[in-house]
Amino acid sequence: MLSSFVRSAFRNTPAVCQLRAMSTSGSFSSLLVSRPTEAITHVQLNRPEKRNAMNRAFWSEMVECFNQIAEDSDCRVVVVSGAGKIFTAGIDLMDMASDVMQPAGDDMARNAWNMRKIISKYQETFSVIEKCPKPVVVAVHGACVGGGVDLITACDIRLCTQDAWFQVKEVDIGLAADVGTLQRLPKVIGSRSLVNELALTARKMYADEAKSCGLVSRVFADKDAMMAAAMEMAGEIASRSPVATQGTKVNLIYSRDHSVAEGLDYMASWNMSMLLTQDVMKSAQAAMEKKSLKTVVFSKL
Ligand SMILES: CCC/C=C/C=C/C(=O)SCCNC(=O)CCNC(=O)[C@H](O)C(C)(C)COP(=O)(O)OP(=O)(O)OC[C@H]1O[C@@H](n2cnc3c(N)ncnc32)[C@H](O)[C@@H]1OP(=O)(O)O
């Protein structure tokens, strides 16, 4: 069974897969994108029968999807979740064999060069979440394995259910995690020792520990409760000025990767133009009049 899957993966050329992924603009085979409100985009990993394993289509569709979201001036916040029994089983071990294990090339140097390009391309699948200026809330239920941890560490707010577990699984399949976990997880979890332990042993971390170490900010009894809270939180973010929320995301990420002095300098340059927005006056007026920001109309961004 496995070998026939792997054989068919080898026959599947990237060009063919790309055509399939892009066949209908805005609709994806591995993702289900919906609009619970005008300002909230909900992206679901949507291969529930395969536990949302990340197949070839997924790796390119995420980039296409988040680039579209970044350009969509109606969207102010994104919620990411998984359809079906779990959040994700990580990389699709059946579909990815040809790309990851057999880079094309006439000699070793060219193989290696192409491998580098492939890995960089896969890294972009999650970096695109971080580059998207809209805040991203991720809601995890059940398992979040391998590539799933890479994905969630690129998101801005992480929620999970009581039955959630997280596993930096890559060492178990013979590789060092290469699409974001080793770079971002140490910046999410305070304890370097815990990050090292998780990444080197691939042990499962359950919801309570994920909360206590700071990987997630809230834990919910079940998926329904989590999704309701995720949407409510998204609604709160969406009711704020997009100049304020998107500027906050961009500057938080910049500051994470720079010194305090550099972050302050970047912030000053950012706000020397962004403070010219009419949103400051509108928001301040609502505060003075004790009105909810939900009653204020902010222009699209
Ligand atoms: C350059 C690229 C860099 C990226 C690197 C990323 C690395 C990683 O992600 S490492 C992690 C790889 N993932 C795994 O090792 C997880 C394997 N899956 C499981 O352990 C279990 O499926 C899981 C505990 C997640 C869920 O168990 P459950 O009992 O609920 O489901 P199953 O009966 O096992 O599976 C249902 C069907 O889904 C298929 N499937 C599950 N995981 C994968 C996967 N990772 N890849 C491909 N397919 C997967 C499974 O074969 C079943 O399919 P079928 O037999 O057709 O019903």
From TrEMBL:
It catalyses: (3E,5Z,8Z,11Z,14Z)-eicosapentaenoyl-CoA = (2E,4E,8Z,11Z,14Z)-eicosapentaenoyl-CoA; (3E,5Z)-octadienoyl-CoA = (2E,4E)-octadienoyl-CoA. It is found in: Peroxisome. Keywords: Acetylation, Fatty acid metabolism, Isomerase, Lipid metabolism, Peroxisome. Coiled coil: none annotated. Its main location: other. The keyword Lipid metabolism applies. InterPro entries: ClpP/crotonase-like_dom_sf, Ech1-like, Enoyl-CoA_hydra/iso, Enoyl-CoA_hydra_C. Pathway: Lipid metabolism; fatty acid beta-oxidation. Isomerization of 3-trans,5-cis-dienoyl-CoA to 2-trans,4-trans-dienoyl-CoA. This is Delta(3,5)-Delta(2,4)-dienoyl-CoA isomerase, mitochondrial.
